[in-house]
Amino acid sequence: MSDEAQIEQQVQLFLAVKEKLAGSIKSPCPVEVQVAVFTAVHNWQMNQVIDRQQTERYAKKQQSAAEPATAKQKAYADDLEIEYPENITKAELSKLINERAH
Questions:
Q1: Distances from the Cα of 49 to the Cα of 39, 60, 63, 83, 98, angstroms
Q2: Structure confidence by residue, pLDDT tens digits, 6-20
């Protein structure tokens, strides 16, 4: 989403919150309260985006770990004289390499 689209979305959200507050409060709602509510809603939205991104990154990392070990990993393991099965995954070979290195 472009910056302009994000700004427009936030402005529309602010106006919707302002309208909702104006309709539910008998006296005029102070701008500070409107801004506080808008900020809270915005922060909640951003946390949702961050949570989704973290979940996607974790899933991608898990998927990558299940892939077959790379030729570079295997060559390094060979240099360290580590025995491993031909169909070893990236994560498994990485673990063996780390155990040997420490």
A1: 15, 17, 21, 43, 34
A2: 778 877 877 777 777
Report how far apart the first and last C-alpha atoms of the chain are (Å, whole number): 45
Closest by CA position to 96, among listed 77, 68, 72, 69: 77
Q: Exposed/middle/buried for 6, CB within 10 Å: 0-12, 13-18, 19+?
A: exposed
pLDDT in tens, 23-77: 666 666 677 877 887 788 888 888 888 999 999 999 998 888 889 999 999 999 9
| Amino acid of residue 43 | N
